[in-house]
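Please review this one.

:::
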Amino acid sequence: MSDVSTTVHDADAARRIANRLKRAQGQLTAVITAVEGGGDCREVVTQLSAVSSAIDRAGFAVIAAAMQQCLTEDDGDEGRVRMAELEKLFLSLS
């Protein structure tokens, strides 16, 4: 994927992100069940939109945590490279 090594070090942030992704996983399971069971189209689209939003928010939270970490570290040119890579990742989510 990328050679930039950034992780979510803040345990509280990691827990919140994981919880958000678990909710999205549950919503996605409901969408799959509805599609397979011939569920109402409007409800399927509404749930799919919720899944997409939850995943987007989790992605932004991961990038924000990594950016915050990079801003607190002073690595000179290496830090600028990481920030550029994080910016690219951030923009790929939009």
